[in-house]
Amino acid sequence: MEFVRFNGVEFPYHPEFYGEQSPFGHLPLEDAVETSFQLGQQTFTYQRIPEEKRPYPNLEMGNAANMCLGCGHIGISQGLADALYELQIPPWLVMATSGIGCGGKWSSDIGQMLDDPLHRVYGAHVTHGQSTSSGFARGVIQPGLLNIMGGGDGDIASIGLAYLHNVIASNVNGLVFSMTNNVYGLTKGQPSRTSEKGRKDRRMTAALEMEPLDLVLEALAISGATFVARTLSSDRKKTRDYFMAAILHPGCAVLDIISPCVTWNMSQNAGYWKPLLFEMATGNYQDVVVDLEKHLDGKFDPTDRATAEFVYRRLTEAGKKPVGLVYYNKDSVSFQQDHGLRAERPIGNLTSAELTLSQDDLGKM
Amino acid sequence: MGISTGSPTRTADADLLTMISAGGPFPRVIVSPGDVEAQFSLPSRLFNIADAGQLPVILLTNLWTGENLFTAPEYDASELAPIDRGPRVTPEDALAGPLDYARYLMGRSAPFAVPGTPGAGHIVRGGNFVVADSADDPRGRGSYSELPGDVKRLTEHKHAKLALIADMLPKPQLITPAGKSDYQGVSGGDIGLIVWGSAVHPATEAQAKLAEHADVLQLRTVYPLRQHAEQIRSFVRQHARVAVVEQNFEGQLRETILKECYSTPGTVVPDLGLINRYDGRQMTAEDILEAL
Ligand SMILES: Cc1ncc(C[n+]2csc(CCOP(=O)(O)OP(=O)(O)O)c2C)c(N)n1
Ligand code: SF4
Predict the structure, then answer these.
(1) pTM for the structure as a whole
(2) pLDDT tens readout for residues A145-171
(3) In angstroms, how far is the first alpha carbon of chain A from the final one?
(4) Predicted complex ipTM
(5) Together in a domain, B31 and B45
């Protein structure tokens, strides 16, 4: 069987599916032009199909899921839809898995509002905290498809933390994104595991005493992620680029996306974050931590884990919120590649005859 | 099967009530094979039930059955049910013509499409929220909804699915001193023992040792029981003394039988005895004889 690797997905190439006569929209691989974009100093390349030849529209959601106007999550879903549009991954090759929360609604929305059934992705709106564990399972039984797992920081980094850790460590091909608003938005603003120490609103009887969990550090230093980045939801183009790089990355990419909750965490809006952000690739280290510039020899290198962790910690200690590509393993080998899993026939499509055990099979066992 | 519970590295059949309510109020089927032969032959049927009803089927077993040596007849593949994956659409179907794909059809199991099937993308419901076909969605594609009407219809739809698979559920097995069969409603005697899990072994051993005539009714489907309520009630009626024999403190199967088979108003609640052991050890025939 012939496989095509195209912009981070791998699928068996049936000319009936993707060729000129395809009833599903011709994916003109022959017109694709190798195109690059930058994240900091790092270059990522993809096969770009010119806009006029694209078979698939932007799957941007129409806010059918009833988000508050101004919610950061909306920009994140748009950035994701933009990335899928730019990469032209057939929607039926996309598995979108989310848990419960405002940050879980994107999977029900993306593409689902478009009338053409060919523009609908495979969404799963699963139990709170289980987007990564369910997404992992989906990635293993459908190894070639694009496996997107995402939710609020409550979902990903609080109740879902144990699963997140193992899924990152497995390096299953796909991406995990957290829409980090530092509260439980859907359930009306309770603090989450990422809320800052000392947080106290009028409904809390005491201030939070625990140090917050830092998702980037968790992924980078504890789970051993092969791709970790942070960005702010209000920059749609940047969000798109981070999603694109994460999709292209072979392995489990982790995106921590700061996403203001305009209803329950008003004080931490985009205006609050902007002065705190520090671009790891281009920021002026001299201003923040005097000896860092010297240590880095003038340039931050996101391909070395120990350096990334050291620099990241120093910046946070100095009160900064580091953003950008924090760490990236160029030689990452995904769980699927490592285990030789390929998408020839999904388990779900095996026939009765293929699945029924014979006396002969039994004897061999 | 999955989580291990109870006294670590010891045995019990004590997870029935947990499994009945775990995860929230959605329909499910719980089956306990009880012996190694059934542990081999039942799962293929359980997969078919799960696919036909598109609901979870839980297989309950215990440590004692899993960690002991048994002599069993050679496994015979012809006892396995041919796998039937239920209604599905495949990429090949999509090629044959545009799929007007409906994932959600109220009151029945709609065809299932595996991710990667062109034109059958959909959202899988789960967690606390629902997708439902509605007046706005006559094609049954499903979409996000928290509207009270949608939540109500979806809840009813989920529960209605049990009726689709009621006939497929493993039936109560009657074990008389003469042998085993599906319970047909004809048996009778002094003592009736209703068992599940690995209590079936000591129960049949005790049956052989008893001076009185004793019958054993082994429940393999342990939840729901409504579809087998008539058989269970008739077994209880036809024996002078009836006890549920099980390896837990509460009498979990007894409680479930009373709830599922005797809760209609006007039903006379029988005097169901309980013979139980809950010290982490497998029950023996002596335990039963002594209790009787
Ligand atoms: C197992 C479980 N525990 C708790 C809840 C209640 N709950 C629903 S959403 C939520 C947290 C939402 O916060 P987050 O994941 O950060 O998403 P946000 O709404 O902030 O985007 C909680 C605790 C639940 N639905 N399921
Ligand atoms: S409550 Fe907060 S997180 Fe939820 S939709 Fe509104 S702004 Fe967004």
Answers:
(1) 0.90
(2) 999 999 999 999 999 999 999 999 999
(3) 28
(4) 0.87
(5) yes
